[in-house]
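We emphasize that the prediction below concerns an isolated chain of 454 residues; any contacts that depend on oligomerization or on bound cofactors are therefore not represented. The input was used exactly as deposited, without trimming of termini.
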Amino acid sequence: MFQKSTNYYWLALVLGIQIFTTSQVRAQSRLDQYIQQGIESNQSIKQQAFLLQKNMYVLNEAKTMFLPNITFSTTYTKADGGRTIDFPAGDLLNGAYATLNQLTGSNSFPQLQNQHVQINPDNFYDARFRTTLPVLNAELIYNKKIRSQQVDLQKAEILLYKRELVKEVKTAYYNYLKATNAVKIYQSFLQLVEEGERTNTKLFENAKINRTAVIRSRNEVSKINASLTTARKTEESARYYFNFLLNRPLTDSILADEIVTLPTQDQRQNNDVSSREELSKLKISKDINENLNGLARSYLIPKIGTYLDLGSQAFDWKFNQNSRYYFWGISLEWNLFSFGKNTYRIKQTIADKQAITSQTDYVQQQLLTELKVRQANMQSAIARYQAAQSQLKTSQTYYSDMTKLYKEGMAIYIELLDAQNQWIDAQLQANIALFDTWISFTAIERANASFNIQ
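Result of the prediction step, given as a token string:
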């Protein structure tokens, strides 16, 4: 018989552990689902995602700068007058032609007129395809690196928005659970004081007690009803804000889970702030500054490019073997002197680098201080929770004792009422302390960026 009872005990214990574990996993799963829903529907994050997409397009544009560029252009000119080139063909050849005509006794060599050739081309076209390709251009190389780092910077910005949203969603969720549990506590206590009012009324009708106990019990019912109304309004407000963060109708219901334990110790002791997105952004900014410095120094490297023209040019819109042509060349550009302009640009990037380094040190110290403060708040919240649990046990024992004494006529109703008020206050304080620890833990997760964002 003893062995059978022992088996039942262990079976109940295992089932209890499984039920508790399942409840905790489901609670965490529900909260994670809410967080994911909030991230997917948040308008600010969507705006940042659009900016990321824009930066990706800018990066792709920078990559195309290294590829050949083909353009088509054409010109047509119609001209009359202007400068001319004088060619004395008659003066040079007419004398010789006259002598030849006399020697041959013929007119085979006609007399020529001096020529006046117009410089401006008349009825002339030039159509061509030009292909250009940069061979060496340091500005393009640094520009591509900077655009790529700007994409990384925008990704860090999006992650920063997500992490802040996670903190807000989790805090709002815990505040909603806190308000929901407070409503349950007041509802339970309302039944208790209503039963007390009913009992005191019967006792008064049977002349067992005086009117004072009845009046006090009615006052307690009114007071708890008022507190219950306030708690419901607080719950309603918490639900509105939580749904607002998830960008869904404010009146949507929330799946509330029972949380009865504190965060584990290992989750609270992470003192590393290197994962903070603020530091990542500063590191990326420092890398961008280094490339800006390289861009400012790129004037020392000559720019080399090549081009190829394939076209046709002729008068009177003729297109034939003689009009077609190709034209290939290499260009070199080297900035040798610019009166210190490039030197000042370099000095600007050096000053920016020093400013970023100083800001990084300050922000890192600031974030570390924030984490220490959050951890201290967590320790205070745990101390308040432990004190509240102790007070809850004490007040519950005190209330049980007073109930027995009151039923035996050894205590007056005022003493029982005092025990009731202490008990409900202890329940409310324990409820507040429990969820304050989770809210403090959420602040620590935000401070050390330990929450894994999908």
